[in-house]
Amino acid sequence: MIEPIFILEAVVNGILLGGVLALLALGLNLIFGVIDIVWIAYVDLVTLCMYAVYFLVSVYGWPLWLAGLGSIGAGALLGVLVHLLIITPILSSPPINQLLATGGLLFFIQSVATLLWSTDHRSVRVSLPTLEVGGIFISFSRLLAFGLSVLAMIALYLFLRRTYTGTAIRAVSQDREAIALMGARPQRLYLVTSAVGGAMAGVAGALLIIQYAVHPYFGGAFGPLTFMICVLGGLGNMVGAFFAAFIMAQVISVGGVIVSTEMGYVIAFVIFIVLMFVRPGGIFAKRG
Amino acid sequence: MLELSQVTAGYGAFTALWDVSLRVSAGEAVAVVGPNGAGKTTLLRAISGLIAPRAGRVTFEGAELAGRPAYETVAHGIAHVPEGRRLFPQLTVAENLKMGAFLPAARAHFHESLERVYTLFPVLAERRAQRAGSLSGGEQQMLAVGRALMSRPKLILFDEPSMGLAPVMVLRLFDLIRRVRADGYTILVVEQNVRQVLKLVDRAYLLEVGRIKMEGRAAELAEQDFVRKAYVGL
Amino acid sequence: MTTTFRGLGLLALVAMALVPVLPLGAAQEYIWHVIIQIFLWSFVGNAWSLMGRFGLVSLGHGAFLGVGAYATVLLWNFFGMTPWLGGPLAVLLTVALALVIAYPCSRFQVVGHYFALVTLAVGEVVRLWIIAERDWTGGSLGVSLKTGGTASGLWTLQFADKRVFYYVGLAAWLFGLWVWWRVDRSMARSAMEAIGEDETAAASVGIRVTRFKMGITALSAALTALGGALLALYLAYTNPDTFSGIGVSLRIVFAVVLGGMYSLLGPFVGTALTIALSEYLRIYFGIKLIGIAETIYGLLLIIFIIFLPAGIYGSLRDALFRRRAPRPSGDVPARA
Which of B109, B112, C299, C328 has the maximal Cβ count within 10 Å? Predict the structure, then answer.
C-alpha cells in the first residue's frame, strides 16, 4: 500500500502543477473566447519561448529573471505574428480549415525546432533547493513557478476587468458588431488579444523551463493536456479552465503516484472523455 | 446634415433597398416607417457602416460615408442603437456605458457624459454594477440609448426601439427619446409602431419593399389612410 | 465520368499493376517500398475522409490505426494467430472502440471543435496507454513482428518479396476507393450532408442522425484499422508514435486536405505528394538536415489551407470543370 505521506506529497505537487497548467489553459482560452479559433499550436509557442529562455541564459549569460521578461516579449511577438500571418487570412474559413492551419503551424514549429536545435533535451541549469515541509519534499522551482503563475493570472484578471482595452476585449467576444458601433476596431482588439495570449505563453515558457527540459516535441506532452483542460472547463470559459486545470493536475499527480506516471495521464484523459459525455459543454458550462 | 442619395443595398444576392433617397437636417427628428421586411434595418446599417451600399451616396455633414466601416462613421458623429439593443450581456451597466465612450474624443469627456446619462436615466445609476443581461427590457433599451449617448454623437439612429417592450414601456421610451431630442441631438428613428412614432417626429418617410413610397410632415402622414387602416391598433 | 476519364483511369490502373514486373533497375525495391506506403496511407486517408467530408473532423484517427496495428501484431506474437484472423479481430476491436466514442458524441451532439478535441484525446489515450503498458506492448520502443519461420508466407502474411505486398497495397487502395464511391452514391451521403448542415432539421425530417453518424464512424474506423494492420504487417514493426497519437493523426488529415477532402482521388494525390516530397527531401539532404522535410511540409500545409482550401486535386478539378461549364452571358463559351 502506498503511504499516505506520498499521496499528500502528490496532492501538493498536483496543486503546484495545476498553477502552470491553469496559466496555459487561460492563454489558450483567452484567444479562443475572443477570436473563436483554437490555436492547436499554442503549447508549441510555449516551447519556442522555453528555447528562448534557454539560449538567453545558457548562451548569452542573461540572468534568469531578465530572460523571463525576454520570454514574455518573445511570446507577445509570436502571438502577433501568428495572428497576422496565419489567423487573419482564415478568419472566415470553415472551422476545419482553421484547425488545420494552426495544426500545420504545430508541425512547422516542431520540425523547425528539430532542424535548428536537434532533438536533444536542453535544460536551464538552475540550482534551486528542495524544501522539506512536514515530511513532504517540494521543489523550490515548482513552488516559484506556482507563485509566479498565480501572479500572472491575477495580472490577466486585472487587465481584463479594469482596463479599457481589457473590457473592450471582453466586449468583442460578446458582440463583434456592437463594439464596432462604439468606434472600436475588432481587428485591433484581436491583435491585442493575440499578443496577450502570446505573452502568457511566454510566462508559461519561462516557468516551465526551470522545471522541465525542452525539446522540439515538448508540445506533444502538454498540448493535448491543455486542450483537454480548456474543453473540460468549457471552451472560452476562463473560470472553468482555471478549476479544470487543478482537477486534471490532481488526477495526473495522484494517479501517477498510485499507478504509474504514464497511467496518470491515461486516467486523466479517460476521465476527460467520460466527462465530455456527461457534460458536453464542459463541466462548468452555463445552462441555456 | 445627413443625406442619402439613391442608395441600393442588400445581403449577398438579395437586394433590400432600391434607390433610396432621404435627408435629415440638423436638429430634426425624422422617422422611417413601414411594414416588416421593408428594409428599414438595412437602411440604418448602410448609414452606420455595418454594410456597404452597392450604389448611391451617404453624405454626413459633407463627408462621404458610403462603404466606410462602422468604427469610422462613429467617429464622424453617428451613433447607432441597433435592433434588439445588442448590449454586452456579461458586462455591467457601467462597463457597457464605458464601451460607448471608446472613441478618444468621447473618452476625454467621459465623466461629463456619464453624469448626463445617469441624470437622464436614474435607474441606470442605481443598477450600474448589474450585468446588462439581467436587466428588464425597458432598462436594456435605456442602457442602449445611454450607451449611444456616451459617444457624444450628433445624429442618433434608433432601430425599432419599441420592439419587445410592453405598451407602457413604449410610451415611456418615446418620452425619453423626446427628451434626448430636446437635449439637442438629431434623431432618425426606424419603427413599425407608426402611430406612436409619428407623434414624436417632425417628418417621416414610408418605406415599403425597399423603396420610399411616401414622405411628408408627421401630422400629414398621420392623416393618411394607410396609418388608419393598415396599422391600426399598434 | 466521361469516356476520356475512364480510359485514362484504366490505363493508369494497368500501368500501376505492371510496375512490379517492369525492369526498374537497382532502385526497384525502394520504388516498390515508396509506392506501397502511398497505397496504404492513401487507403487510410480515404477512410478518414469518409468522416471528414461530412464535417466529422477527427484528429484522433491514430487511435484506430494504432489499435488495428497493435492488435494484429500482438495476436500473432503472443498467440500465433494468423493475421487472417487477427486482422479482422483487430478491426472488430477498433469498431467497438469507435462505437463507444461515437455513440455519446452523436447522442449528446458533440460536434465541431469539441468533437475534434475529444477525438484528439482518444488518439492520445491510445498512445499513452500503449506506452504505459510497456510490459507487453513494448512501450515507446515499439514491437517487431515475430518472423513466421517455416510457416507459409500466405498464412502469416509475411513475404520476403515486396512485390506481393505491392499487390496487396494496390488491392487495398482500390477497395478503399470502391467503398468511398459506394458511400458517395448512397443515401447515406445525402443524409450525412443534411446532418452536416443542420442536425436538428435533419432529425426533424426523420433522418436517424445517431445511426448514420455511428455508421460512418464505424466504417471509417474499420478501414483505418485495416490499414493499420496492413502497414504493421508490411513494415513488420509498430511503435506508438508512428501508429497513434496526435502526430500521425494530423499527418493523415493533412495529406487528405492537401489533396482535397471532397474528392475520390484527393487523399491519394495528397498522400502521394507528401510521401514523395519527404522521400525526395530525405534523399536530397540525407541525414544532414533532419526535420527539413517536415518543415517544408508544415509550411506548405499552412499555405495550402490559406490559399487552396479545396486542396490541390480538388482545386484542379474545380478549375477544369469550370472551364467546361457554360459561362455567364457575354463570354465566349469554352471549347468542350
Answer: C299
Q: Which spans in C134-288 are helix H?
A: 134-137, 153-156, 162-185, 187-197, 199-204, 209-235, 240-243, 246-259, 266-285
* Domain boundaries defined on chain A: 4-278
**Residue-wise pLDDT tens digits, B107-158:** 888 999 999 899 888 888 988 899 998 988 888 988 999 999 999 999 999 9
B174-220 per-position pLDDT tens digit: 888 888 888 889 999 998 888 888 888 888 888 888 888 888 888 88
Chains A and B touch each other (3 or more Cβ pairs < 8 A): yes
State the Cα–Cα distance between residues B146 and B177, nearest whole angstrom.
11
Residue B59 zone, left/alpha/beta (φ > 0; ψ -120 to 50; rest): beta
- Torsional sign, CA B192, B195, B196, B200: positive
Whether residue A174 and residue B147 make contact (CB cut-off 8 A), yes or no, is: no
Cβ atoms of C139 and C130 closer than 8 Å = yes
Asked whether residue A241 carries a pLDDT value surpassing 60, the answer given is yes
pLDDT at C331 over 50: no
Residue linked to cell 525502394: C30
Please report whether residue B234 resides in a domain: no
Domain boundaries, chain C: 28-243
Sign of CA dihedral C304, C306, C310, C314: negative
Q: Determine contact: C309 vs chain A, CB below 8 A.
A: yes
pLDDT over threshold 90, residue A190: yes
| Boundaries of domain holding B208 | 2-228
C-alpha separations of C319 from A77, B17, C132, C322 in Å: 39, 35, 49, 5
pLDDT of residue A169: 93
Q: What is the pLDDT of residue C66?
A: 93
- Is A265 within 8 Å of C128 (Cβ atoms)? yes
| β partners of residue B204 | B31, B216
Minimal CA separation from C17 to chain A, in Å: 34
Phi and psi at residue C143, to the nearest 5°: -140, 140
B156 φ/ψ angles, rounded to the nearest 5 degrees: -115, 130
- List chain A residues with CB under 8 Å of C108: 277, 280
Q: How confident is the model at residue C138 (pLDDT cuts 50, 70, 90)?
A: confident
pLDDT (tens digit per residue) in B16-32: 888 888 888 888 899 99
What is the phi/psi pair of residue B24, to 5°? Answer: -130, 125
Q: C57: distance to nearest CA of chain A, Å?
A: 7
Query: What ipTM score was computed for the predicted complex, to two decimals?
Result: 0.84
The CA distance from B26 to B16, in Å, is 27
Are A82 and A39 contacting, i.e. CB atoms less than 8 angstroms apart? Answer: yes
Query: Under an 8 A CB cutoff, do C309 and A93 touch?
Result: yes
Q: Which amino acid is it at A206?
A: A
Mean pLDDT for chain B overall = 86
What is the pLDDT averaged over residues C208-227?
A: 91
Q: In what order do the strands lie in the sheet with B63-64?
A: B14-24, B2-11, B55-60, B63-64
Selecting from 2.60.120, 3.30.870, 2.60.40, 1.10.3470, what CATH number does the domain A4-278 have?
1.10.3470
- Which helix (H) or strand (E) element contains residue C308? none
Is B120 within the bounds of a domain?
yes
Give the number of other Cβ atoms within 10 Å of residue C213's Cβ: 26
CATH number of the domain that B105 lies in?
A: 3.40.50.300
Residue B221 within any structural domain of the chain = yes
Of the candidate ranges A196-200, C102-106, C283-287, C324-328, the one whose mean pLDDT is the lowest: C324-328
Report the number of distinct structural domains present in chain B.
1
**Cβ separation B95–A167 shorter than 8 A:** yes
Work out the pLDDT band at C325, boundaries 50, 70, 90: very low
